[in-house]
Design brief:
The complex is a heterodimer. Chain A has ten helices and 19 strands. Chain A is α/β, with parallel strands linked by helices. Chain B is mostly helical. In chain B, helix 1 crosses helix 2, helix 1 packs antiparallel against helix 6 and helix 4 runs antiparallel to helix 5. Classes of the chains: A alpha/beta, B mainly alpha.
């Protein structure tokens, strides 16, 4: 099933027809936003457009197709395969991953219970972020991460939307498959927010390689421990670390002989050192490579790579 | 000749009475099967928390033959993503694949209305909705069972009596 078919399946009849009749190249489509009684807005080729009833792209919102309450409800039925109850855990987190690895972000009336968010009802805002794999985007980085014993513990530092997960995904894929730079190894991925593998019914929708095991929707600290005990990975990959528990689990994993690759939000190493927990982790030399991404250029652009002594080894 | 003709008429109306009596009993049996199916569906949702399409497919192998095709076809419809809501798919699957002659229009309407409720509810509400339909079904079955002896006797008696009356009238 191609990208277009996967996507239009989640829309009610009228919206489905609009996308089918449009001449959009779905590979360049980044985002579709549906808001109740508001026009559909799409992000195409890094630009925002409205889409009209006959599938034309418009800069003027007056001609944009307006989404009704009923269409919103039907979209949720299709997104959840007619079973909203089966996605309660995902809805609590604010998103559902659909076939193809596309992420459907949700907002509406939040229902709370004693422990936190119980459910989101009257879902009235939907943001569909289309999954984009960049096969080969780690080609330039990988040689700097490989040592005699295999892959070095690496921390990818990046501002939001600069491509840290995309880069991590490609590193995982290459380490798992193996190539001229690195021998194939078993990789364990703890995918707390389903962003790395974008699993749909347990199956990764993104290519993570042939020797990769994925713990989907599992808290990072818990998942690292589980993987070490059960799947014996040589490399563990996690996205967006930051809590004390994450750091402790990474430290445990590292002591067990596993290599770790993680990502973290930040602009630079100095920026991260302002946070006490992260500073301690850096000082303990838990990571030997720091890959800093640049948020100013296209997704996945490397600003520089540092070693454990904070020396620049690539710029 | 007259005697043979009269006997044939009485046998025919008696059989008709027996047919209606049997139909009544089979209706109860079909409703009980429907109840059992909803019970299993509720269990599937409660314990596996899988999507409805998968549950219907699994249930299709465990329910009585009369509901099997309906569940399987409904599951295929949901999987193909035909752009129709659960309500529409459910109704069409009932109309096309659920042909139980013993059920009345009222029974069908009750079953169709269940499809209007499922698909967009949270876990608790989904289970409560199915449970509510099971209660309604249970009540219907209890009422039918209470009247079964009387009604069945009535059908048999009416069958024989109408035959005799017809014969008397003609002779």
């Amino acid at each position: 099933m191609d990208r277009k078919e996967q996507l239009v399946k989640i829309f009610p009849r009228n919206i489905k027809e609009i996308f089918l009749s449009s001449s959009l190249d779905f590979k360049r489509l980044q985002e579709i936003r549906l808001r109740i009684n508001r026009p559909i807005i799409i992000n195409y080729n890094n630009k925002e457009y409205y889409i009209t009833k006959d599938g034309q792209l418009e800069k003027n919102g007056d001609r944009g197709y307006i989404v009704s309450r009923n269409e919103m409800r039907e979209t949720m039925e299709f997104v959840s395969s007619y079973s909203l109850y089966a996605y309660e855990e995902e809805i609590k987190q604010g998103f559902i991953t659909i076939q193809g690895g596309h992420r459907v972000g949700l907002a509406g009336k939040v229902v709370l219970d004693g422990q936190g968010i119980k459910f989101i009802k009257y879902i009235s805002f939907i943001n569909i972020r289309l999954s984009h794999e960049k096969i080969g985007c780690a080609n330039n980085v990988l040689p700097f991460l490989v040592g005699k014993e295999g892959i070095k513990n690496t921390l990818i530092i990046s501002p939001p939307r600069a491509g840290k997960t995309t880069l991590l995904r490609d590193i995982v894929r290459q380490c798992s498959n193996g190539n001229d730079v690195i021998k194939g190894m078993s990789v364990g991925v703890v995918d707390e927010r389903s962003e790395i593998g974008a699993c749909y019914m347990g199956e990764p929708q993104n290519d993570l390689g042939i020797r990769t095991d994925v713990l989907d929707s599992c808290p990072k600290a818990m998942g690292i421990m589980m993987l070490i005990r059960t799947m014996a990975p040589e490399l563990i990959a996690v996205d967006e670390i930051g809590t004390k528990e994450d750091i402790e689990a990474i430290s445990y994993g590292s002591n067990c002989g596993c290599s770790i690759i993680a990502t973290i939000h930040g602009n630079s190493l100095e920026d991260l050192e302002k946070k006490p927990i992260i500073k301690e982790m850096i000082e303990k030399k838990l990571f030997s490579r720091f890959v800093i991404l640049s948020g100013n250029h296209s997704v996945g652009t490397i600003s520089h790579i540092l070693d454990e002594h904070k020396n620049i080894i690539y710029q | 000749m007259k005697l043979i003709g009269s006997l044939l008429v009485i046998v025919a109306t008696t059989l008709m009475g027996a047919y209606y009596s049997n139909k009544y009993k089979m209706r109860i049996k079909s409703l009980l099967e429907m109840y059992r199916m909803l019970q299993m569906l509720s269990g599937e949702i409660e314990f596996s928390r899988g999507v409805l399409g998968e549950s219907f497919l699994r249930l299709g192998n465990r329910v009585a033959k009369e509901y099997q095709v309906f569940l399987q076809q409904l599951s295929y419809r949901l999987a193909e993503g035909n752009g129709q809501t659960l309500e529409e798919n459910w109704k069409q699957a009932v109309e096309e694949h659920l042909h139980i002659t013993y059920l009345t229009k009222e029974d069908y309407d009750l079953f169709i209305s269940l499809g209007e409720q499922l698909g967009y509810l949270d876990y608790e509400m989904e289970l409560k909705t199915i449970s509510m339909y099971m209660d309604r079904l249970q009540l219907k079955i209890s009422n039918l069972e209470k009247e079964m002896t009387t009604k069945c006797k009535l059908y048999h008696t009416l069958g024989i009596a109408s035959g005799c009356l017809f014969v008397l009238f003609i002779i």
